[in-house]
Structures
1.
Amino acid sequence: MKAIVCGAGIAGTALAWHLERDGWGVELVERAPVFREGGYMIDFYGPGLEAAERMGLRPGLEEVRHPVNEIGYVDGSGRETSRLVVKAGFAEVVSLLRGDLARVLAEQVRAPVRYGTTVAAVRQDDSGVEVELTDGTRREADLLVGADGVHSRVRELVFGPEERFIRYLGHHVAAYVVEDEDLSRLVGPRYRMLTVPHLMAGAYAVGEDRLALLFLRHEPDPAVPADPAASLCEHFGHLGWIMPEVLGRCPQPPELYYDQVTQVEAPQWSSGRVVLLGDACQAVSLFAGHGASLAVAAAWVLAGELRAASSGDLSPALDRYAARMRPVVTDVQAFGRRFLPWMAPPSRLRITARDWMLRLASLPGADRLFMNSFTPGGHRLIT
């Protein structure tokens, strides 16, 4: 059996890991010209971490982990307004850069990656699928996997235009990493955030000399600005704290990640011998904070269903995969929409309420209740 996986990010490489070990021939194609480093800090936990542990990847994750010992908010002068000390009991939340998680997975996959390439056309029948790539080559396979993100080309070709599936959540997001020992020491192993109505800027030290930055901005217009770096400077440059220093070193894409905050709601996840995976069909948004975990878990579920399938007809396996994953994705997406006004508060009253909640969560015994309330979980996907 042969699979073509479009997208060499977290979901695509996680699935390739499984398929290779099940005897499939796998080829990965990736529209980015090179492997994508960096990205924003993520909290990796729940079913995805459980799957990674069973895959033997936990030691690699620990090597690139950047433990968080405190979550807190500051004002424009850098003065702390509220904080929550993260207890050792939360060790099952692995904080790391998105790109580092992708690399841990990619290093365990033997399949070649054809960078700077995506799918141009798809034709399929009962016996297989033929894929034409943007470099002019053609490939034949038993399965085409669209693991190519929110703006999936595979989804567009097989299921229709992007606007049918995207739910815009009214915000833009940006992230990048700067190298600066002084700023890294100033922020330290703490996630620090500065918020004013409709704007949030966060920072977290990555090692001793790097600082990971994240920006959220309320924006009714989903269109990404022509100059995203200039847009960040315009909207966040007046906030104080470390903003003047870090925005003065803001790169342009691809080093700067800039996009809409969206969710993907796809009625169909498969058609014949084409299946969607990861953000292409289940993007839960930055606000839900569970996307990487669900991507790795979904790859586990899909691989398991394919393993149990007959070689002739894959459709029942693809249907079972969607049936297992869809309720979990729907639940986490709803959580993300509920959490949005807390992560990017729309008013000073909401900011004050959030600060008081964080202070109350510091009381003995309240920290775990707080963390459980603000993290989706309890999904039994890895069996």
2.
Amino acid sequence: MNGPTESAPGAALDLQPRSWKGYTALILVWQVAASGCFYAVYAVTPFVRAQFGVSTTRIGFLLTALMLGYTVCVAPVGRLIDRYGEARVLVVGLTGLGATTVLVTAASTYPRLLGAVAVLGAFYATAIPGTNKAVFNAIPAERLNVSMGIKQMGVTAGSGLSSLLVPLSASRVGWEVAFLGAGAVAAVVTVAFRVCYDAGTGDADESGTSLRTHVGDPEYVLLVAAGFFLGAGLFTTVGYTLLYVTDVVGASSVFAGATLAAAQASGSVGRIGFGWIADNWFGSLTRSTLVLLAIQAGVSAILFAAIPFVEPPLVVLGLFALLGAFILGFTGVYYSCIGSIVPNDGIGSATAGGQLALNSGALVAPPAFGYLVDARGYDDAWTLLACATLVAFILFLVLIGRRGVGRRR
């Protein structure tokens, strides 16, 4: 049964949430702080390119270093969460994120910067499996998709804030100030979360659930395969929107930041809105989320293909805002879908596997996108993402066909 556990002796009972809304808000704040640190790296790409004199392709390798640290650690972290609970892992993760975000500002060379962002990515590996486990532990089943969508809004909110604040900081006092501020916020939120959260402090789980357990399920394999292609679209969009708007549209870095922030804001709306639809308009959790994921992937493919044909800055902003609702708004229902086909005691490792798939797409796609930009231009690069999300759409259709109208839980 989903819901908070009994409070530990000596805990500050008056500071702990007493309803699913309170726990959702607490998990959301953690996610905003963590994503603000992580996605600040994406927002700083134009300034890194200028400061270190690197090519667009090398910016892709910077994003790959960030995702490599994330990807290498996410599966082991998911296993730790299933064994020992999410509370301690989330506290350690946000502490490390804040400290490493500050460390990035001290990187004096491009190789050192690569190393720093790789460590930052490693600490961010605690975010998605940890907060997903928290939602499944603390939130009642009838509110699960909405709560998951609100929690996932923290990713787009943190990224959107970084997209606005890093360029503004860079234009006035230097981008480093924004990174220092993100580190300070992470430290404050870490303390607040440690004091208030008490839904995942149970005994260690020795059941042996791991990612290998889930790989034997063909539906799970198809789902994470689709996640690979959606992850390619998601992270490449976040990583290259600023550069595209400044390089091709010819707008200022502040307008480019506003464009990415608009995409992130609509992504937040999409995460909550699609979650509400999944809770209220369909029958089984698995089928509802699969149908919505197919819609999100299909519309994303169409919008990626349309980007090369749009030129006026305000129209570009509107297109990216619409795109954000779909390619940045799918993760809440994606994790709910994963959680619906695995046992509760394996949610940490299962969603870590889903995140591993998204991250794997993010490892491959940004350098490929950057190479196509340097070699052939942005038109072919956006077409690559349209093809990737089309493959995800086809995989979701296969899953829907396999499921029919049945449900597992």
